[in-house]
Structures are given as structure tokens and as C-alpha cells.
UniProtKB/TrEMBL annotation:
<dbReference type="InterPro" id="IPR001129">
    <property type="entry name" value="Membr-assoc_MAPEG"/>
</dbReference>
<feature type="transmembrane region" description="Helical">
    <location>
        <begin position="118"/>
        <end position="139"/>
    </location>
</feature>
<keyword id="KW-0472">Membrane</keyword>
<protein>
    <submittedName>
        <fullName>Membrane protein</fullName>
    </submittedName>
</protein>
<keyword id="KW-0812">Transmembrane</keyword>
<dbReference type="GO" id="GO:0016020">
    <property type="term" value="C:membrane"/>
</dbReference>
<dbReference type="Pfam" id="PF01124">
    <property type="entry name" value="MAPEG"/>
</dbReference>
<feature type="transmembrane region" description="Helical">
    <location>
        <begin position="71"/>
        <end position="97"/>
    </location>
</feature>
<dbReference type="InterPro" id="IPR023352">
    <property type="entry name" value="MAPEG-like_dom_sf"/>
</dbReference>
<keyword id="KW-1133">Transmembrane helix</keyword>
Length: 142
């Protein structure tokens, strides 16, 4: 059953956008530090000695936020356009946000791949559930 305020779906979207902007700032800061301690020419074509681990992890984290989250964004937008934002849609969207926040915290702190991987898998499950919810709305409207 759709919720009265369909725009609520954009609150979890804003949360992931904010996380992405924080990741950008963290990457920029890590690269600024790295550029001081290495040959800055590396940044012309990303060739030569690699960045220090902290800068590489920050850059990889930034890249990750343009992979699975694109399916999250698309699912949220489709749910909104169809007027199909329901309680479960919001639960799945916020579940994705929570999983992504945990994954980000792990990745940018102690970076345990098992813990990060578990958060990633939970994010995939929430994204899949979001899309199953959206698919039901699409099929019901067809």
C-alpha cells in the first residue's frame, strides 16, 4: 500500500548522496596528502608508482558509490514516478542506506574485508528487495 507522502523515498536517496559527498571529501584529502609525499605527475594519467594505501582505499570507496547505488537510485526514482512508494519500499531503501553506511565505516576505518563484505551483501539484498517491490508495482500497472 502506497504511503501518503511519496517524496519520503528521497530521504534515503539524500542520505546516500551525502555519504557520496563525504567520500569525495575524504578521497580529495587523502590524495592531497599523497601528492605531497609522491611524484605528483602520477595524477596526470595514474601511471607509475601507485598511491599510498589510504589514498587508494579512499578512491576505491568513492568508485564503489557509483556502482550498486545506481540501482538503488533508479529503484527509488521508479517507485516515486509510479506512485508506488509504500512502507516496504521505504524499509528496503533505508535498509540499503544502513548497510552502505556500515560498509563505508568499515572501509574507511579498519577495513576488514569480511565485515565490509557482509555489509555489501546486505546492501545487495536490500536493493534486490527494493526492485522486487518496484517490479510488483510495474506488473500491477501493466
Amino acid at each position: 500500500m502506497p504511503v501518503t507522502n511519496q517524496t519520503l523515498i528521497f530521504l534515503p536517496v539524500l542520505a546516500v548522496v551525502a555519504l557520496t559527498l563525504v567520500a569525495f571529501i575524504r578521497m580529495a584529502a587523502a590524495r592531497a596528502v599523497a601528492a605531497k609525499s609522491m611524484n605528483a605527475d602520477y595524477y596526470r594519467a595514474h601511471l607509475g608508482e601507485p598511491e599510498p594505501e589510504a589514498a587508494r582505499a579512499a578512491a576505491r570507496h568513492w568508485d564503489n558509490l557509483f556502482e550498486l547505488p545506481t540501482l538503488f537510485y533508479a529503484g527509488c526514482i521508479v517507485a516515486f514516478v509510479l506512485g508506488a512508494v509504500g512502507t516496504w519500499t521505504l524499509v528496503f531503501a533505508w535498509g540499503f542506506v544502513a548497510a552502505r553506511l556500515v560498509q563505508s565505516l568499515v572501509h574507511m576505518t579498519y577495513n576488514n574485508p569480511a565485515h565490509r563484505g557482509l555489509a555489501f551483501v546486505l546492501g545487495v539484498v536490500f536493493t534486490l528487495a527494493l526492485w522486487v517491490d518496484v517490479a510488483q508495482a510495474i506488473l500491477a500497472a501493466a
